[in-house]
Structures are given as C-alpha cells and as structure tokens.
C-alpha cells in the first residue's frame, strides 16, 4: 500500500491524499459505505459503483465468519469475488461487533468467548484466529483485534483494557508474520488506538500504536455515546501523535458534521452505518440539514428529493413520491433513501477534498457545519 499526501490545509489539520493498493486508488478523505454481510444494504453493486462510486467499502469479520462462514468465502476465492466487487474492501476485526451484538461475551487475556446473535452457538475470537479469518476473507485492509470500551468507562477499566488491546496488537502482528496472504494481492494491517475518553490514555495508546510502524492507523472507542466535543478532543490528541505519512481511520464516525470536524483534525478515513441505517428509517441527509421523509409535511411536496444531489434518484423522484413509498412500506423507499444518503456522504468527502486542495477548507467546513445543523 502506498499513501501520498497531496495537500494539508493551512488553517486546520485537514489533509488530502491518495492510498494505492492492489485493488486501486482511494482518494482521501474517504467515507467507506458499510457492507456488513457482503452487501451494502439495499444497494446493488452496479448501482453502488455507477451512482455512488466509492473507492472502498467495508465488511465485518464477525458477521462473515458466522454467515456465510469463512470457508464459503474461501471457496469463492475471497470476498471480492464472492460479492462481485473489484475495488477496495476493508474488514473490521470483530473487536466492536463482539461487544455490541453478541450476548454473554466473556473477555479474557486469551480472547473473547461469545454467543452468536444468529443461532446462539458459542465461538471464540483471539487475535490469532481473527487474523487468520481476515487473511481468508481477503480484504485489502484488515484491522487489529481490539476491545472497544463503552461510554462512560471507569478509568481503571479503560487503562487495563487499553493495555490488553496493546498486547493483542503484538499477537496480531506476530501471527500475521507467520500467515501468508491467501490470494494473489497484498493486505495492509491497521492497528487501533483505544483509551476511552482519557487524554493521557489516548496519548499512551497513540504512541504504542505509532511504534508498531503499520501502513495505516485507526482510532477506535469513539462515537459510543460520548458528547461530540469529547470525541473531537480525543481525535485531536491522537492525531498529534500518529505519523503524518500514514492514513488515519476514525472507526464508526459519524454524522456529516462529525465527519467534517474530524477531517479538520487530521482524519483521512471514515465508516458508519448512519447513512444506510437512517435511510431505512426515512431520514435523509442533505447539505441544508436532515429530512424525515415520513413527515406529513412532504405529502404534497413534488420538488426533487435533493436538487443538489449527485445520484439519479435525487432529481428523478419527488419528496412526495418517496414519502408515499415509506407510508406504503415499499422496499423501493428504503433503496432510494439509501442511494441518496450514500451519494450525499460521498459528495461531502469529495467536496472536502476539493476545498483542501483549493486551500479554503476551513471556511467551507465552518459554513457547512452551520448549514447542515438543521431539521428541514
Ligand atoms: N473497534 C473496532 N471497530 C469499531 C470500533 C472500535 O472501537 C468502533 C468505535 N466507534 C467502531 N467500529 N474494531
């Protein structure tokens, strides 16, 4: 993997760059649509490529391991072939899903024993087997196995957990060294900073992670219920320490405003279920604020879904039509809303990139943050 920085904003820490892997380029800052179970919910791969055009999408080790199961993905020749996606893929390690989805999980030094949310069967994730699973799934970027602490989190728990995440990182790295790539392309490994909402722990973790000398670095444990200001404070201290010449990935963030504020602090990569999940509930993100399309006020509004939107659904269909689809509980409503929201998120990060390159990112960001902070 090769990362090139093209420009850094003079008034903030925002960066525009480019990552190149064996599956092509990723222009940063980037938002990665979430395709948890080898599907970006509701969007066909061709539509995703032609309308939304992301350079990279995300998959989840936890889900794919449980269903369809790793061996099926191996038989298919890896996740790219299995799902018909020839661009970049990143897989999360399960270090978050194990805590958020499975019941009865038991965290020990060795690893995590958890109960499947699908059939109640028991499984164990260790740093070693999670690296093996990710080798076989075959994403271009694979993540360290970590513990994502909840919010709020007691200082002593956060500290102990962070040290365990660091020991797990060492185990991930030594196991990867012994495990060759499964397919004929390379994989890059990103470790994850933890440390809850404590600046001293975040600094300590960022130093440990930076020392691992990985090709890119991630920040976990944020956007778990803490106030946005606390999230930004943590991103700021961590970005001061993480190397400048490697991409920085903020996991599971966030709203359009969170994304712009974190770009300003030096983050290059994001993922979040928000554009897709909220779309399925009728919430649309736009440059002028959010819309609840189920609201009666849109019943006879025949204006386009989003006049400024980049996807065909934005101008092809009206708000009244989309509201009707939601009222009638038609699949198509969720599909259209998902295409709109993903199109908006990708437009937003591309605009951010343009403004970083043009040198007026800071002013543009402040204007957008104000403009988007509304309910229409
Ligand atoms: N760890 C991992 N994945 C994640 C997170 C984390 O802390 C988060 C936190 N917002 C989202 N996804 N492995």
UniProtKB/TrEMBL annotation:
Residues 252-258, 276-280 are annotated as: RNA binding. It comes from the Bacteria. The active site is at residues 92, 271. Its EC number is 2.4.2.29. It catalyses: 7-aminomethyl-7-carbaguanine + guanosine(34) in tRNA = 7-aminomethyl-7-carbaguanosine(34) in tRNA + guanine. GO terms for molecular function: tRNA-guanosine(34) queuine transglycosylase activity. Pathway: tRNA modification; tRNA-queuosine biosynthesis. InterPro entries: ArchSynthase1/Queuine_TRR (IPR050076), TGT (IPR004803), TGT-like_sf (IPR036511), tRNA_ribo_trans-like (IPR002616). Residues 12-372 form the tRNA-guanine(15) transglycosylase-like domain. Substrate binds at residues 92-96, 146, 194, 221. GO terms for cellular component: cytosol. It is an enzyme of class 2 (transferase). Keywords: Glycosyltransferase, Queuosine biosynthesis, Transferase, tRNA processing. GO terms for biological process: tRNA queuosine(34) biosynthetic process. Homodimer. Within each dimer, one monomer is responsible for RNA recognition and catalysis, while the other monomer binds to the replacement base PreQ1. Catalyzes the base-exchange of a guanine (G) residue with the queuine precursor 7-aminomethyl-7-deazaguanine (PreQ1) at position 34 (anticodon wobble position) in tRNAs with GU(N) anticodons (tRNA-Asp, -Asn, -His and -Tyr). Catalysis occurs through a double-displacement mechanism. The nucleophile active site attacks the C1' of nucleotide 34 to detach the guanine base from the RNA, forming a covalent enzyme-RNA intermediate. The proton acceptor active site deprotonates the incoming PreQ1, allowing a nucleophilic attack on the C1' of the ribose to form the product. Belongs to the queuine tRNA-ribosyltransferase family. This is Queuine tRNA-ribosyltransferase. It comes from Saonia flava. The lineage of its organism: Bacteria, Pseudomonadati, Bacteroidota, Flavobacteriia, Flavobacteriales. The gene is tgt.
């Amino acid at each position: 993997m090769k990362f090139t920085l093209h420009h850094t904003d003079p008034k903030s820490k925002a960066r525009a760059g480019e990552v190149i892997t064996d599956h092509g380029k990723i222009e940063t800052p980037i938002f990665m649509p979430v395709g948890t179970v080898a599907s970006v919910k509701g969007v066909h791969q061709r539509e995703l490529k032609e309308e939304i055009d992301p350079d990279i999408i995300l998959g989840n080790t936890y889900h794919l391991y449980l269903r369809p199961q790793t061996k099926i993905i191996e038989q298919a020749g890896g996740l790219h072939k299995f799902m018909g996606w020839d661009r970049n893929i990143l897989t999360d390690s399960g270090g978050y899903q194990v805590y958020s989805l499975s019941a009865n999980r038991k965290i020990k030094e060795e690893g995590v024993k958890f109960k499947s949310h699908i059939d109640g069967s028991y499984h164990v994730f260790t740093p070693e087997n999670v690296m093996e699973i990710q080798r076989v799934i075959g994403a271009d970027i694979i993540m360290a196995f970590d513990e994502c602490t909840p919010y709020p989190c007691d200082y002593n728990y956060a500290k102990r957990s962070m040290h365990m995440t660091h020991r797990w990182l060492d185990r991930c790295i030594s196991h990867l060294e012994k495990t060759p790539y499964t397919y004929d392309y390379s994989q890059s490994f990103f470790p994850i900073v933890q440390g809850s909402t404590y600046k001293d722990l975040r600094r300590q973790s960022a130093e440990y992670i930076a020392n691992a000398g990985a090709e890119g670095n991630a920040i976990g444990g944020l956007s778990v219920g803490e106030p946005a200001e606390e999230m930004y404070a943590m991103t700021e201290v961590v970005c001061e320490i993480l190397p400048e010449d490697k991409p920085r990935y903020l996991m599971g963030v966030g709203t359009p405003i969170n994304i712009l504020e974190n770009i300003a602090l030096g983050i290059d990569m994001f993922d979040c279920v928000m554009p897709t999940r909220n779309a399925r509930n009728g919430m649309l993100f736009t440059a002028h604020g959010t819309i609840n399309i189920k609201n009666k006020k849109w019943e006879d509004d025949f204006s386009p879904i989003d006049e400024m939107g980049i996807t065909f659904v934005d101008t092809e269909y009206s708000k009244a039509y989309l509201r009707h689809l939601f009222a009638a509980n038609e699949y198509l409503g969720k599909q259209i809303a998902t295409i709109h929201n993903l199109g908006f998120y990708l437009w937003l990060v591309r605009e951010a990139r343009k403004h970083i390159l043009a040198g007026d990112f800071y002013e543009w960001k402040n204007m957008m943050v104000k403009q988007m902070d509304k309910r229409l």
